[in-house]
Design brief:
Layout lengths: L2 E7 L4 E7 L10 E6 L7 E6 L2 E6 L5 H14 L4 H4 L3 E6 L10 E2 L2 H9 L8 H14 L5 E5 L9 H4 L5 H7 L8 H15 L7 E7 L3 E7 L2 E5 L21 H8 L5 H10 L2 H6 L4 H9 L3 H25 L4 E5 H6 L1 H7 L12 H5 L6 E2 L8 E4 L4 H16 L1
Bound molecules: adenosine monophosphate.
């Protein structure tokens, strides 16, 4: 077994897993855990070791204390970092800017470069840097690897990456499309050619990562040629709490006429919009129930969501010219059969035919949901970003030795 530790550090939380980088996507990790409310009086640590759950509630002053506590509990059960002889620590880093297009072994210089990208991701990169520094201190002898959410999209063609705003202002301020969820889009798009029985270089595909955050990508021969998230993860599809694409003039209107501050607009569009802002809930299970009970706001929210999703599918079909596969993944994409059905309804003339019985099967590994006659194959492939990060970190760490 080659175990890797994967860390996803937020401003007041750390999500972590220890997993075998050779595991199947559906395998349970050896350890998974979440430290929450770091820096608040009521900190919480939930950790699952070989399927058994342990909980601790006490104040956790900082990220360092949180990780130390988690490692302590793991060690008590014989699965501490020292017991496992970890091959690598993989860190999820949200923004790699234009600098990082591939995972990188972390050294002091790389930490500084990630820190320099904070203006592009003020909500995420500071916590990512904290997590890296703390983990390097506690585990100094293990290679640490940064895996960037933007990496898969670093080589988008300029026509897809650049915005039609003043070039000088955009250039000086790093304003361009970076794209996010790249680890998932790459992980999924790498599995689809095998499902099709084709060489990756010959496959044109659309990947729909529909979770609480949601994004679409167009991938040609293994390279992303477009994606729906933009300079920030606010753009594109309608999401659980984020608005997705809107007219930028709305922001001026809310500021000038409605009198909202820039911070209030930021919170409104990121946390109080999307499905939640329209219906009051952001979970598709609840949304579905509300629709079945005749709730008109829920129905309207759902229609706006599907309409926007179909817009992207249509535009990526044109961008790709020929589409071999459309793949659904993440919480909504893997589980909400009604979303899959409505997203692709009535597209038979474009060679897309969903098989209702296949689509109705429960989520259980990668599977085809199109008919045998469908020219465009439609798949559901579970994503596993932690496994993808573990694989990348392990590959880079072992190549170094
Ligand atoms: P993710 O961000 O990928 O973890 O996705 C989380 C979202 O997936 C939740 O907010 C739900 O909207 C959705 N979801 C999870 N399980 C189901 C399910 N069984 N049916 C419908 N939607 C689901």
């Amino acid at each position: 077994m080659t175990y890797a530790l994967v860390l996803n550090s937020g401003s007041s939380s750390i999500k972590f897993q220890v997993l075998d980088s050779a595991a199947a996507a559906s395998d349970e990790p050896l350890v998974s855990g979440l430290v929450e409310q770091i820096g608040e009086p009521n900190g919480k640590l939930v950790i699952k070791i070989r399927g058994e759950k342990y909980t601790s509630e006490e104040s956790i002053p900082d990220h360092s204390a949180g990780l130390a506590k988690a490692f302590g509990i793991m060690a008590e059960h014989g699965v501490g970092p020292k017991d496992l002889d970890l091959t690598a620590v993989g860190h999820r880093v949200v923004h790699g800017g234009k600098v990082f297009s591939a995972p990188e072994i972390i050294n002091d210089q790389v930490v500084e470069m990630i820190r320099d990208l904070i203006p592009l991701a003020p909500l995420h990169n500071p916590a990512n840097v904290d997590g890296i520094e703390v983990a390097r201190e506690i585990l100094p002898d293990i290679p640490h690897v940064a895996v960037f959410d933007t990496g898969f999209f670093a080589d988008l063609p300029p026509a897809a990456a650049l915005y039609a705003i003043n070039g000088e202002v955009a250039g000086e301020n790093g304003v361009r499309r970076y794209g996010f969820h790249g680890t998932s889009h790459e992980f999924i798009s790498q599995q689809v050619p095998a499902l099709l029985g084709k060489d990756p270089s010959a496959v044109n595909q659309i990947v729909l990562h529909l979770g609480n955050g949601a994004s679409a990508s167009a991938v040609k021969g293994g390279h992303a040629i477009d994606t729906s998230m933009g300079m920030t993860p606010l753009a594109g599809l309608v999401m659980g709490t984020r608005c997705g694409d809107i007219d930028p003039g709305i922001i001026f209107h809310l500021y000038r006429t409605a009198g909202l501050s820039i911070d209030e607009i930021d919170t409104l569009l990121n946390k109080k919009s999307g499905i939640k802002g329209l219906s009051g809930v952001n979970d598709f299970r609840q949304l579905r129930e509300m629709i079945e009970n005749g709730d008109t706001d829920a129905w309207s929210a759902y229609n706006i969501y599907i309409h926007q999703l179909r817009r992207y599918i249509g535009s990526y079909m044109i961008a790709l010219g020929r589409v071999d596969a459309i793949t659904f993944t993440a919480g909504v994409g893997e589980n909400a059969k009604f979303v899959r059905e409505d997203a692709l309804a009535g597209l038979e003339m474009y060679g897309i035919q969903i098989d209702k019985d296949r689509n109705d099967l429960p989520n259980d590994g990668p599977r085809e949901i199109s008919t045998d006659e469908s020219a465009v194959k439609v798949f559901v492939v579970p994503t596993n970003e932690e496994l993808a990060i573990a694989q990348k970190a392990t590959a880079l760490a072992t190549a170094q030795v």
